[in-house]
Amino acid sequence: HPDVHILDGGWSVWTAGGGAVTADRTAPRPGVFTPRPDPSKRATLDEVSHGLHGAVAFWDTRERREYDGATPYLEPRGGHLPDAHHLWFHDLMQEDGTLRDRQELRAQLARVGVPVDSPVIPYCTGGVRSGFAYAVLRELGSTTAANYDGSMWEWSAVPDRPLE
To answer: Collapsing DSSP states into helix, strand and coil, what is residue 51?
Structure first.
């Protein structure tokens, strides 16, 4: 979908701010949907494998315990991609769930070594938290970020793929 928006802060911030809400129901109109995935937004297993040689930066968006090896979502193995930078995706938000301002986000990412203006691949367990991180990178102007939606479930499934 080329015209997608994320509600900053979610439903609670929307309603607390007086956002319009209705209980009216509208019947969906029949139509034809033809998916057209944009491969530039997604990092494949091959791209991640090649990126291990320094071509891209990896951003582990999971909790610190997961980065350190915990597998609460049943990944086959624990740890993180070699040389991955760590910043939990939740730390990108303020207490009310809204995104921190751009300057603060850039500073956070810079502190942990995540480049906004160079190729970066965020990952997590299955692509959800990293999808949010990808959206943040795009909001900050990145044109080279790609989400690794296979993430740790895919990567850690094969024993000879490196993990730290």
So the answer is: helix
